[in-house]
Amino acid sequence: MTDPTTPWPPLRLDDLAREAVRAALGPGARVDEVAVLQSTPESAVLRLAVHGAAGPLVLKLAATSAGPALDLGRTAAVMRRAAAAGVPVPAVLAADASGRLDGVQHLLQEHVPGRPWREVRPLLDDAAVRAVHAAVAAVLAALSTVRPAGFGELDGDGEVRPVPLAEALRRRVALRTRRPAARALAERLVAEHPDRLGAGPPVLSHDDLHHQNVLVDPASARLVAVLDWDKAWAGPAASDRARVRFWDDMTGPGPETDPEPAGDDDVHRLHQLLWCLEHAFPTARHRADTARLLRSFDLPVPADLG
Q: Which GO terms describe its molecular function (predicted)?
């Protein structure tokens, strides 16, 4: 396995790519080129040129030790459920979280041509921007039609073992919020504000909807794919609505782009703050957003967070 402190060596990534493609497409499949899009001590994302294929493929790799927070079998199952509901996602060709591929999780999917919404937004006129806003709203509406059996984390088949929403969020904080001070604040937030966790039935929640995970075709202003389903869970619809509203001009200025407008902005702020506490981006904007949201709930702003 890999050194726990450094990204995976390129030669190992090449070997894993070839093994994954042969396993999915047959022993005669040949990888002509491997481009490393991302590599960390626990995971990597590769773009592959496969001989004779109609277009590039994308291979996601992860150490088995990255579970349960990262389970690429679960990711694939969730993508299939989202696709069945009408959400545009890359087609999954193969996935496994058990480590059959040389002890590594993998997910092989088709590459979708397009550019992140963050990059495309400044290029479009007002009418095209409104079209993308409507497409994002349609994604939220489609996800709200997927009704898991209850709230909670999804297993490798995309199914849930239901628990009450407050308990589901408490477990989610324990799983994903690693910094002790941030985790303590998130746990306090969930415990002290049970009326602001979200109403309505459980739905399929992407939980990482932001500019970079929405691909748009610049020429047609068409939303072509929603990416990165690794954090998906069975949550309240307010969770994803809060995320998309948090990103500047991603979904428009008001609730007209929201398929299910929430009556209480405090619900959105709570889910936005849980997201802020989970992550530790070293930017002034992230620190300012975190501090502002903490103050809105009369919570302290630790020096290392705000």
A: kinase activity
Instruction: Report the predicted TM-score, pTM, of the whole model to 2 decimal places.
Output: 0.90
- Beta-bridge partner residues of 95: 107
Say if residues 154 and 232 touch (Cβ distance below 8 Å): yes
Closest CA to 61 of 111, 96, 26, 33: 96
Distance CA 174, CA 191 (A): 13
Q: Residue type for 88, please?
A: P
Q: Residue 184: what residue type?
A: A
DSSP string, 143-169: HTT---SSBB-B-TTS-B--B-HHHHH
Query: Under 8 Å CB-to-CB from 100, ≥6 apart: which residues?
Result: none
Domains of the chain: 10-110 (3.30.200.20), 115-296 (3.90.1200.10)
Cis peptide leading into residue 68 (ω within 30°): yes
Token pair for 39: 């590599």
Q: Which residues of the chain have pLDDT under 50?
A: 1-4, 254-257, 259-260, 262
- Condensed to tens digits (0 to 9), the pLDDT of residues 168-210 reads 999 999 999 999 999 999 999 999 999 999 989 999 999 999 8
Residues in Cβ contact with 219 at an 8 Å cutoff, skipping those fewer than 6 apart? none
Q: Which two tokens stand for residue 143?
A: 């996800």
